[in-house]
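Subject: Interface between my chains keeps coming out wrong

I've been trying for a while to get a sensible model of this assembly. When I model each chain on its own everything looks fine, but I need the whole thing in one frame so I can look at the contacts. Pasting all components below, labels as-is. Any help appreciated, I'm running out of ideas.
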Amino acid sequence: MTAVDPAAPTGRAAKGVPVARRGRRRGETTVAVVARLAGVSAPTVSKVLNGHPGVAAETRERVEQVLREQNYRRPDAVTQAPMLEVAFQALESHLAIEIMRGVAQVAGARQLAVGFTETASAPGWLDQVLRRRPVAVIAVYGAAMRREHARLAASGIPLVALDPTGEPVHSVPSVGAANWNGGLTATRHLLELGHRRIAMIGGPPGFLAARARLDGFRAAMDAAGAPVEASLLRSGTLSYEDGLRHGRDLLALSAPPTAVFCCNDLLALGVYEAARRAGRRVPDDLSVVGFDDLEFARWSGPALTTVRQPLAEMGAAAAELALTLAAGDVPPRLRVELATDLVLRASTASPFAA
Amino acid sequence: MTAVDPAAPTGRAAKGVPVARRGRRRGETTVAVVARLAGVSAPTVSKVLNGHPGVAAETRERVEQVLREQNYRRPDAVTQAPMLEVAFQALESHLAIEIMRGVAQVAGARQLAVGFTETASAPGWLDQVLRRRPVAVIAVYGAAMRREHARLAASGIPLVALDPTGEPVHSVPSVGAANWNGGLTATRHLLELGHRRIAMIGGPPGFLAARARLDGFRAAMDAAGAPVEASLLRSGTLSYEDGLRHGRDLLALSAPPTAVFCCNDLLALGVYEAARRAGRRVPDDLSVVGFDDLEFARWSGPALTTVRQPLAEMGAAAAELALTLAAGDVPPRLRVELATDLVLRASTASPFAA
DNA sequence: CTGAAAGCGCTTACAG
DNA sequence: CTGAAAGCGCTTACAG
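Reply #2:
Try treating it as a single job with all components included. I did that and got this:
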């Protein structure tokens, strides 16, 4: 019993799961079984399992389905140096660091490595990830689509979406923030200051989180009996450039808004610049509210009032969720939604002051 | 000054780290090898490995010793995906994302996972890293000290410092930026605009990169015959708060500077805020130059003129260097220093205009 | 793209 | 207690 087990440090998984054994696997689905059920050979199953090329798409799908149905597990799945993979669609995301910090914290406490992938720049990323066999994958902001999900599922690797959409279509467990509420709160704040002509610069059409923020905005406006003019409703990419463009257009209106609610902080900074160029002061001539609360929000001039997404906590929650699924446990809920807060700083004021 | 072009394929780019495989294990100690060295059969080694009964105590000990000597690992442990570990001292570092992007790019092209550690928040990080057996470790901004270096070296894991200091003391291969040159160029720019009373807010004493920037500043001032007044030379942490504090103090001087060169962008943003509070305009009343060129530099108001460190390229160069060392090759040079550029934006102007 | 055959590393069952 | 032989599950190399 006291035998030395040199592999123990790397080999032992976090949870008390039995150590994988190489020989006979009692009652477990084997590659051979999967091959028979899928009507292919063992080598083909092996290729699918490892994301190797040289398998027809149709064959791959059939094998993946059997793999899923039979809940295939690799014999060494448990024995691996456990790691948690985080896939970002694009690293330009200013949210990335905060999220990584949350993930790293949870993973570190569990002695788990954190892997890191930028999907946009690496077309074959999923093959690589499959080869690495992480304990779970966290996909940030749409980094994993339906097809990827299927392949991960086939390999028995749970996927968690860190994504504000909460889109239930994919039925992927997910972590997000209270976007609708954030939009509501931000808008209420502006209404309470006395604003009525409030513009909103929204996000791209397909982005559900942006839609939720917009809906929150509308709800607050409706509740206050404030009209939402079409000319004050803009949308674009969540970028500084689009903030600048829309800000300029809004300020050039014959009846410009007295306040702008921006779908993220980058847009807000673009509006800042538009105001500067138009000779308007924030907040005296124009109130601005952002969304995200990126670190630079409090360093901007004036410090930006914004809706805070708790990104580190979201990362941590995603990691917790992923690890629960990886352990084969059923998480208390498949959708975790964290609260947003309005952070009051110096970019909003009453429209009557000026 | 530029030494490594990450995009350029080296002589044998395909070389790299062996991909994990289930079958053959090249060069790894197998049960068969251990058995031969211990003068027993493979089944006996297997029993020892798994703590099964039916092995004489003496035999067991002999086997265990060989196991240890040969650093035997279970094949599943070997199946671990090769990975490159990046250790950040603190994730708050605003440089982290850019660096990670560069590392991820190189690693992705080589099918390598990128691991991710925040050392400040994880005291036992090195133990964890050693357990993971990364192909190499990249330590960002002082994340690895002399002791860690020794332990990594003992485990045959190469260490690369991504660090502006270029401190030759530890003889750790490193990647940095041309800090002295950056300081010189930034200061020259201000001198050419006509400034003479130029302040500098430097970094903490122990931080050699900050010292290099300061020395570059002095060199430019000396060359121009501009005096460096002690009251215009400040130092502190590389933070917004210290920028604000020193900015306020500098502007309160009876003869305030007409320009400030800041040791990083955060300090510059603090100076912005100090100027706003003092009712001074940038750049009309005060020119400001930063260092780093973080993304938000171009979104600040006014857009910040700053010295760009090519962080992504630095990350990529560090990864290349690390992989070269991991492959057992001798890199062309042990210190890679990438060039810095002055990025002219809207925060500097002639002192005569106002 | 596919799979028969060979092979790998480890374990099991069993004879000595 | 020990190990030759058989076997397991998976992967690789290669011919079709």
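Reply #3:
Confirming on my end. The two ends of chain B are 38 Å apart (CA to CA).
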